[in-house]
Fold:
Amino acid sequence: MIKAKKSLGQNFLIDKSILEKIVNTTDVSNKTILEIGPGTGNLTSCILKKKPKQIFVIEKDNELSINLKNKFNNQIKIINNDVLKIDETKLFNERVTVFGNLPYNISTEILSKWVINLKNNFWFECLVLMFQKEVADRIIAEFNTSNYGRLSIICNWKLKIKKICDIKPEAFFPRPKIESSLLYFYPKKNFTKIKDPKNLEKITRIFFNQRRKMLKKPFNQLFNGDKRVLDKLNIDLNLRPQNLTLDTYYKLTSEYENLIS
Structure:
């Protein structure tokens, strides 16, 4: 019997109704699928029933990779590697549909890597991903709420995000101590142009470094008190970082790039 490794953040999804709900989130028929962290292959089996064109799975665990090979033979293509070390844009010649019960300990790192490295041509059609509920709440948080922050701003830049459902601990083995949430991501047609996404990371890091403080200090640090930017974006420096909309942060980043270019 396969044992979940705590060091890799493994919790295997076993609830059939949840597995079916995940697969039914989007049409997979005749599509190229990428699954992250397939574990024992429960979701993989459900995807195969929907007749995809092909399935790639990324599984870091050697033991699980061998088990998947024995279970599915040539029905799937197994990449036995760390997802954080892979450039997905070089794997495919077409947009893929991505499923992932992401390891809790690196879920935000995986998502941030994908979002920050997105070019104008998206390598995926959509992402259907599971997170700890508290992480998902931060991803979909709206401004003026306590969960709103860097993760919300970065993830929503080029992607529309929809919450599908919450998932109880008993849907997994072993049971995690917390609830999970399933999110659906798909590309935006229109978004603020930013030359280097690392500047968006920088802007949000500096603004949210002291999220309870007013905007004056981080703004002056980045823009040296440039009143033209304040007027152009209609920013009140007496507000706090969580009071600025997503769009304001994207425009601030664009203004910062104009300043340093």
